[in-house]
Amino acid sequence: MAEIKYTYFDLRVKGEPARLLLAYSGLKYTDERVALPWDNAAPWTAMKPSMPWGQLPCLSWNGDVICQSMAICRFLAREFGIAGRTNMEMAQVDEIIDVIQDAINANYKAWYAKTKEELQTLTQKTFPAVLGQLEARLQERGGQFMVGNSFTWADLHLFFFCSEDFLDLKVVAGYPLIANLVGRVGALPNIASWMETRPKNGKEQSGFKIYFRNAYQILEDGN
Questions:
Q1: What is the pLDDT of residue 114?
Q2: 3-state secondary structure of 103
Q3: Mean pLDDT across the chain, nearest whole number?
Q4: DSSP SS3 for 34
Q5: Quick check: pTM over 0.85?
């Protein structure tokens, strides 16, 4: 059995996709959570020089170290047999992942633009466009899975994107094939267990609200 340690801040954001993959696998691992720098800068200040690229997340797998969130996820997906069964399927999985990552990056970009209009554009145009495209692609491929005829990392990353970290669940319900797939992924025993028992998402700080509340909630709250 592999000796695994996964290190990230006490936060979801870039750290959660790999945690979902590890949860899916059922493998035991050390979930090392570093104090958020705005709560206590000392742990990260001490750790940062030892990180190959000076940032987190970081995966240690039998003594080998991998950094960069998506590189970690691709490695884990291959190890767990859900990266696609052929070279074409692997490319199709990567395509879906990249589309979702573009939407996630737009989420944070809209927040740091520091204007209400950017968040409105995100919720009213960007997210609906992406969800519509993903719904269409899912329909083209039979409506059951994003790639091929079996579960892949693309389905798991869609589940992550469609969580309340990014989207209002009422919005997701407007895309029935996506909603159905997300529901099936969430019902996988290891995923359901992780979602029920995972640690809370750190302590909110006003300058980083988008890490703790989705854009819909921020707009509704008006602050």
A1: 77
A2: helix
A3: 95
A4: strand
A5: yes
